[in-house]
Each structure stands twice: as structure tokens, then as C-alpha cells.
Amino acid sequence: MPQMTRIQQKNRELILNGALEAFSANGLRGATIDQIARAAGLSKPNVLYYFGSKDEIHKALLTTLLEMWLAPMRQIDPDGEPLAEVLRYVQAKLSMSQDYPRESRLFAHEILQGAPHLTEILGGDLRQIVDRTVAVLEGWMDQGLLARVEPRHLIFSIWSMTQHYADFETQVRAVLGDGRDPVAEGAAFLDDLYRKLLTP
């Protein structure tokens, strides 16, 4: 496939950003190519030049999002200080929930639908990076550098507890009330929780 020009890359990014807007507001079924084109500031034929269908746009967007979600896990350093590496990962995931709430909700919605557009990727890249991370965690536990817990469930808990602040933001804010910062409080709580859980 020939390399895209700067204009083509920019248009593709505009389409994916417009799609995020449309899918976040209306869901996959409710969103239309016309809505995506309007949100992107491009014509419908221009959108269809880059992507053949709404499903293709949705899959491309989700693939990009998955890469973004996995980036902090890829950055866990096997030679780093174990507890600091895990806590840094927790805080990175929490920051992402604050910075990319629409993306988090879109990804969660796809998973709740049975991940029809991501089945291949979830069984491939996601599984591989999780397996590599599990091997690192188990190595640290074997050396007595982290308390022993089931590493995959540790990862699941980090995902669910950090993304909760994006996926259920309205509920979190309603329960905490005005004048409180859910993410700052969540960051302190999660640091304390995982520090106590994983300190040998």
C-alpha cells in the first residue's frame, strides 16, 4: 500500500475523529456516514474514498483505540522497580480515562456487544501483550519483589477500576457531589490500594 500524503493522513484523522463524535453520540447503529462526514467537515464521497463503509470506519477507530489502551502496558519495564512500575501503569490508565472518556466508553460499548469488530485483535495482540505482562509480574512475584496475586485478575482489576471513572463518570460525580475531584481522589485511593495489595 503506497504511503499516504500529509493531506490524506489529515483527512483520515478527521474522519476517525468525526466517527468518534458520531459513534459516541449515537452508537454504531444510530450513526450514519452523513453524520460522520459532517463531524469531520468533509463530504460524504470524500469519507467513502478513505473507508468503504461505516463498519470499516468503526473497526479502524477501535483498532486505533486498542493500540492507545495497550501503550501504557507495553511501557512496563521488566528491569524497573516492580511496585513503581505497576503503580505507574495504574496512574497512566486512570489518566487515560480522564483524557479520553469518549474513547473509553466507545471501547466498553464494543466489548459489551460481544466485540464483533475486535474478536481477531482481542485474541491476538491483546492476548500477547497481556501474556508478556503476566510473565513479568510472575517473575517479580517469584523473586519476592511483589506479593503473590493472580496476575491476570490483577490486570482485570486495574482495567475495571481505572476505566470506571470514564465509563460511569456521571454516577461517580453524582455520588461524590460538587466540589470534589473524582480523578484526583481516585488516583490517591488506587495508589494506596495497590501499594498495600502488592507490597511483599
UniProtKB/TrEMBL annotation:
GO molecular-function term, one example from the UniProt record: transcription cis-regulatory region binding
Gene3D superfamilies in UniProt: Homeodomain-like (1.10.10.60), Tetracycline Repressor, domain 2 (1.10.357.10)
Pfam families attached to this UniProt entry: TetR_C_3, TetR_N
Residue ranges for the DNA-binding region feature of this UniProt entry: 32-51
Residue ranges of domain HTH tetR-type in the record: 9-69
GO biological process: negative regulation of DNA-templated transcription
Keywords: DNA-binding
Record PROSITE patterns: HTH_TETR_2
Annotated PANTHER family: HTH-TYPE TRANSCRIPTIONAL REGULATOR RUTR
Name this protein carries in UniProt: TetR family transcriptional regulator
